[in-house]
Amino acid sequence: MDNTCQVYEDEIQSLEEEIKLLTEQYKDIQQESTFYSEKEILMAIKSFQGEFQGESKGYGSPSDLKAQLESLEADLSFLMKFTGIQFTRHSKKTVERTRNRTVQKHRLSGTCYSLSFQLEFQLLEMQDEEKVSSVITDLCIVMESGEDLNVSEFVSRTEEHGDLLTFFRSLSSYAEWYEHRRRTFLHFK
Q1: 41, 63, 130, 154: which is deepest, by most CB within 10 A?
Q2: What are the coiled-coil residue ranges (predicted)?
Q3: Can you give the residue range of the structural domain that contains 46?
């Protein structure tokens, strides 16, 4: 009898935990949706419907859209071949949104030639009357660097300054030469 009660209690506890998790997810979704007024939502729906029906400005026929998509895919393929960087995963969560300020948490992972990397950062976007400015904060980089002290120092400096452009430029160059060294040492083994 005690064993049966324990099984039911375990099931009840499991269901309570699942309810708690679903409630938290629902609150996150509610928070995301409450940042927009009904008027903004209706405008977005109308805009989407107009684009879907081909009525939006600058798009034209489905064949034009297909050609534009193929062009963008070709550009992306070229950039991946040129830099060696391929993103394998990306997630974004809005942490805070007001009229003129948005904070989003991003997580990226990918490879550059044979080196893998993971990034986590917050993107703060502030909008004035004329322009939008973006600032990267809380940058955390995890990268395969083996025992290379120079890479560890570079990653630390990049995290302090929050300079993603420099990170990706340097990563591309370093990973390319790392791959050449790796192949060379394999050749001599």
Answers
A1: 154
A2: 5-32
A3: 1-54
The total number of structural domains in the chain stands at 2
Q: Are residues 95 and 181 in the same domain?
A: yes
Which residue, of 54, 76, 98, is where some domain finishes? 54
Same domain membership, residue 146 and residue 184:
yes
**Residue 64 falls inside a structural domain:** no
**Res 119: pLDDT:** 92
Q: Dihedral sign, CA of 150, 90, 21, 35? A: positive
Determine contact, residues 98/70, Cβ cutoff 8 Å.
Answer: no
Q: Which residues of 151-167 are buried (b: 16+ CB within 10 A; e: fewer)?
A: beebbeebbeebebeeb
Q: What confidence score (pLDDT) does residue 53 get?
A: 56
Q: Which two tokens stand for residue 79?
A: 């950039």
Expressed in angstroms, the distance from the first to the final Cα of the chain is: 67
Whether the predicted model's global pTM rises above the 0.85 cut: no
Could you read off the pLDDT of 154-167 as tens digits, one per residue?
A: 888 888 888 888 88
Q: Are residues 118 and 184 in the same domain?
A: yes
Segment 18-76, tens digit of pLDDT = 888 888 777 766 655 555 555 666 666 666 666 555 544 555 677 788 888 888 888 88
Amino acid identity of 51? E
